[in-house]
Specification:
The protein has helices at 2-12, 37-46, 62-80, 86-101, 106-116, 120-134, 139-144, 152-164, 167-224, 230-244, 246-265, 267-277, 281-304, 309-319, 323-326; strands at 14-21, 27-34, 50-56. The protein is mainly alpha-helical. Helix 9 (167-224) crosses helix 10 (230-244). 14% of the residues are buried.
């Protein structure tokens, strides 16, 4: 009876093929037996290994999973070539913090991420950062060379962490900050979508009225010779003007849009635009609250990272999106 139960226990053991990384950064492949996936992962962690991949060889669905993965391979390759987003920066900070917290060296952690990161562009950036780091440069200096990927805020926080020795905590705080602002931008965009859609529909309906509907009424009323009220005449005259001088209206819209864009790119013109926007009732509240939130959350992160008030204010001045608040 005991022998049969032991045999059943052995039958329940499954074989798991694993791919892991040691503390020294070396890749380890092998097979182990365990009761389930959690036990297998626990066993590998007890051996000071970072689990990269863990598959059940005895699972009858393993071949189905592999076929599904093959079907998705093309999509994953396409996705890997997309630009670097806020989610990628969050993933980078959290993964690096986790690796450093587990005892891996910075060079080994970057070496692993430069080959395993989902985005191809990020792999190239991390490879360059790794080469500069091996060349003797500070980590913050290596990140500063890639301004489009790593913001000045992140560079300064990492620079402060290099002095205090709290790199893991600082990276976690940076990831939380990036995630907060990514979610904030998402909410603002979602809130603006509905009014923009309504505005576009209103403009399309207005254009249809001016160029299609009103001309038909104008032709009908002209044949009747009926005296029109003032407001009706006013609307009809607008329709006639739009039909006769549509090219002038279109040209004026293009010139106005071009002037606003050029004005925005100019320092003085951008300040004028911002002051006008800050006087518009609803828009002004959104801009003020966003700027104050940016000032408070970013300033709090920098001060917690060890920067002085003066250094924090200097950096905040460059990070403020509105030139009015920058001044």
């Amino acid at each position: 009876m005991v022998a049969s139960s032991a045999a059943r226990g052995e039958d329940k053991m499954a074989r798991f093929a694993y791919k892991a990384r040691s503390r020294g950064g070396e890749e380890v492949n092998g097979v182990l037996e365990a009761g389930n996936r959690s036990e297998a992962a626990r066993e590998l962690r007890s051996q000071q290994l970072l689990v990269l991949n863990l598959n059940n060889e005895n699972s009858p669905q393993a071949s189905d999973i592999e076929s599904i993965q093959d079907e998705k391979l093309g999509f994953l390759e396409w996705r890997a070539r997309l630009p670097i987003t806020a989610k990628d920066r969050i993933f980078f900070c959290r993964q690096l913090a986790m690796m450093l917290g587990s005892g891996m060296t910075l060079i080994n952690a970057l070496d692993l991420m430069s080959t395993e990161f989902p985005k191809i562009k990020m792999r190239r950036v991390l490879s360059e950062v790794l080469e500069d780091l091996k060349g003797g440069e500070a980590f913050s200096q290596c990140l500063a060379k890639h301004e489009r990927v790593f913001s000045r805020l992140m560079v300064r926080v990492v620079e402060s962490a290099e002095e205090s020795g709290e790199m893991t905590i600082s990276l976690q705080k940076v990831s939380e900050h990036i995630e907060f602002w990514a979610e904030m931008r998402k909410k603002v965009i979602s809130a603006c979508v509905y009014p923009i859609i309504i505005l576009v529909i209103a403009m399309l309906v207005g254009a249809m009225m001016v160029f299609v509907v009103i001309p038909k009424f104008d032709a009908f009323l002209s044949k009747r010779g009926v005296a029109l009220p003032f407001m009706t005449k006013f609307v009809v005259n607008i329709s006639r003007f739009g039909i006769s001088y549509w090219w002038a209206i279109l040209l004026s819209i293009l010139l106005t849009a071009t002037a606003l864009i050029l004005m925005f790119r100019n320092e003085r013109g951008r300040r004028i635009q911002e002051r006008i926007c800050l006087k518009i009732p609803i828009l002004s509240h959104v801009l003020i609250y966003m700027s104050m939130s940016n000032f408070a959350t970013t300033g709090s992160l920098l001060i917690k990272s060890g920067l002085s008030i003066v250094s924090t204010m200097k950096l905040l001045a460059g990070l403020m999106s509105l030139k009015v608040y920058h001044d």
